[in-house]
Design goal:
Layout (H helix, E strand, L loop, with lengths): L1 E7 L3 E8 L9 E9 L6 H4 L4 H20 L4 E6 L1 H5 L3 H12 L4 E2 L2 H13 L8 E6 L4 E6 L3 E7 L3 H7 L8 H21 L7 E5 L1 H10 L7 H4 L3 E3 H12 L3 H5 L12 H15 L3 E5 L3 H9 L1
Parallel strand pairs: 1-4, 4-5, 6-9, 9-11
Antiparallel strand pairs: 1-2, 2-3, 6-7, 7-8, 10-11
Helix pairs in contact: 2-4, 5-13, 6-12, 7-12, 8-10, 8-12, 10-12
Protein name: Exopolyphosphatase/guanosine-5'-triphosphate, 3'-diphosphate pyrophosphatase
InterPro entries: ATPase_NBD (IPR043129), GppA/Ppx_hydrolase (IPR050273), Ppx_GppA_N (IPR003695)
Keywords: Hydrolase
Length: about 300
């Protein structure tokens, strides 16, 4: 069966078109993966509403996705909307736009469901030993999931690269006082999450989403973004800390000059890297395994 999975988060909207295997332990066969930075959650932490301009940016991206879905003969489509859509007072306007553009209703999933889908996508095919602590660092929220073959505990907390940047990291580059305020905010949320799951001392820490994969690409000194080199790369804490410091000391222009940096991520990557560094510190993880497979893959597996 050919399926289309769409993940609409606070910062990006992503599409996976894949053929789902007939057996339960089989791997997806990718047909297409796409990503657009639309910053749907721009200003949501402050206003509680999705901006009209942000909804329009998302609509334009969805038009392209809808055309590709039709062209490639997809059997089933599922679109999941996450943190920004959960928080917004005008989520109904967003849902109406999606229905008109894509022909399906978006599912505004809970943080718990987001965490479970991310775990499924991340650990299937992973050879590193369990149990796993899977962290999905998004634009508005971060999901923490603990499990082995299956999910055992999950929690979502409201820290993400966009939310932390809008809330604290205003300077270009951010000041030491701004970074300290973000660190305190992130640490409180991370400690709450790690107690809840619980997530201290995991056999393997697995990191998902663009903040993690970009940090991994920088730590690996890649000449360009290469998903095949990043997927399942193990990055030591010292390397994560070094990359984080460099990003927070850089201007947006400096970050844009980095060959692996997506232009839509340059202004918020410092906040995302900081979240990853603090998670590793508080969880006692000496390294993180970066994964290019995440909630998109989890959504696709569920459609088969």
């Amino acid at each position: 069966m050919r399926v289309a999975a769409i993940d609409c988060g606070t910062n990006s909207i992503r599409l996976l078109i894949a053929d789902v295997p007939g057996r339960s332990d089989g791997a997806l066969s990718d047909v297409a993966r796409r990503m657009e930075i639309v910053r749907l959650g721009e200003g949501v932490d402050r206003t509680g509403r999705l901006a009209t301009e942000a909804i329009e940016r998302t609509r334009v991206a969805l038009l392209g996705y809808a055309a590709e879905i039709a062209e490639l003969g997809v059997d089933r489509v599922r679109m999941c909307a996450t943190s920004a859509s959960r928080d917004a007072a005008n989520a109904a306007d967003f849902a109406a736009m999606v229905r008109a553009t894509l022909g399906v209703d978006p599912e505004v999933i809970t943080g718990d469901e987001e965490a479970r889908l991310s775990f499924t996508g991340a650990v299937r095919g992973l050879t590193a030993p369990g149990p796993y602590l899977v962290v999905d660092i998004g634009g508005g929220s971060t999901e923490f999931v603990v499990g082995g073959a299956e999910v055992e505990h999950a929690i979502s907390v409201d820290i993400g690269c966009v939310r932390m940047t809008e809330r604290h990291l205003h300077g270009n580059p951010p000041t030491s006082a701004e970074i300290a305020a973000a660190e305190a905010d992130i640490t409180r949320a991370v400690d709450t999450a790690l107690r809840a799951v619980p997530g201290h001392g995991p056999a393997t820490l697995v990191g998902l989403a663009g903040s993690v994969t970009t940090v991994a690409a920088l730590a690996l000194h890649l000449p360009e973004y290469d998903a095949t080199r990043i997927h399942h790369a193990r990055i030591a804490y010292d390397e994560v800390a070094k990359v984080t410091t460099g990003l927070l000391e850089s201007t947006v222009a400096d970050r844009l000059a980095l060959p692996v940096m997506h232009p839509g991520r340059a202004d918020v990557i410092g906040g995302g890297a900081l979240i990853l560094r603090i998670i590793m510190e508080r969880a006692g993880a000496a390294s993180v395994v970066a994964s290019e497979h995440d909630i998109l893959d989890g959504i696709a597996y569920g459609l088969g």
